[in-house]
Amino acid sequence: SQQGEEDPQALSIQEGENATMNCSYKTSINNLQWYRQNSGRGLVHLILIRSNEREKHSGRLRVTLDTSKKSSSLLITASRAADTASYFCATDGNFGNEKLTFGTGTRLTIIP
Amino acid sequence: NAGVTQTPKFQVLKTGQSMTLQCAQDMNHNSMYWYRQDPGMGLRLIYYSASEGTTDKGEVPNGYNVSRLNKREFSLRLESAAPSQTSVYFCASSEGSWTEAFFGQGTRLTVV
Q1: pLDDT of A51-62, one tens digit each?
Q2: CA A9, A12, A13, A15 torsion: positive or negative?
Q3: Which residues of B touch A (CB under 8 A)?
Q4: Which chain A residues touch B94 with a CB distance below 8 Å?
Q5: Which of A104, A112, A109 is nearest to A12 (CA)?
Q6: N or C end of chain B: smaller count of CB under 10 Å?
Q7: Which of B81, B45, B79 is closest to B61 using CA atoms?
């Protein structure tokens, strides 16, 4: 089974609102990353947070990490139509073997 | 820079046929990955390679083989294609699992 599970599976919000999506994972990690995928395209890296960090910001993105709960959240503020995409979390699993596994994704739709 | 290049972009195979998906990166990355993406399943890791000359199984390796030909190239082979292997295949590369991964544009494979 997959390491990460995103929640919700799908989310629709009005343009300008904030979008929050969550990721839960199963095993200890060194790092957690978030990626975006526009329809039919390859994934694009958004942000990486290390296991000793609790929060990280990048532009309109805010990521939190709670290693005790094995969970992370991605907040997109002031959403735009261009944010419509699928979002995935990815973890390295702390195995020291370079494995990078992804969750099932959240499909975000921004309504203009 | 080309980044990660996958060929072909589209392919239709008959059940039992074989084919090789090619992937090349020009970023001098150590790690390379092959994923498949099916609706509602997110990305599932097939095989990965932490460095030239090494390969390891991911979550769904059955029915596939890989070759890390050199540092640039990582190919995925289907020896006897089955309809269950109909999917979109993505190749990715990174310095290691602690850094962002770069993705190719994907290969859409249909097995009939």
Answers
A1: 999 999 999 999
A2: positive
A3: 4, 30-31, 33, 35, 40-45, 48, 50, 56, 58-59, 90, 92, 94, 96-106
A4: 100
A5: A109
A6: N
A7: B45
Residue A78 region by backbone torsions, left for phi larger than 0, else alpha for psi between -120 and 50, else beta: left
Interface of A with B in 53-82 (CB under 8 A): none
* B102 Cα to chain A: minimum distance (Å): 7
Give the tens place of pLDDT for each residue, A26-47: 888 889 999 999 987 889 999 9
Q: Of B94, B52, B89, B56, whose CA–CA distance to B74 is shortest?
A: B52
What value does the mean pLDDT of chain A take? 91
Task: Please give, rounded to a whole number of angstroms, the shortest distance from the CA of B82 to a CA of chain A.
Answer: 21
Q: What beta strand segments (E) does B10-111 contain? A: 10-13, 19-25, 31-38, 42-49, 56-57, 64-68, 74-78, 87-94, 102-103, 107-111
In this structure, what token pair is assigned to residue B90? 């993505």
Token digits of residue B12: 């239709």
Rounded to the nearest angstrom, the minimum Cα separation between A87 and chain B is 10
Closest residue in B to A104 (Cα) is B42
CA dist B52 and A14 (Å) reads 47
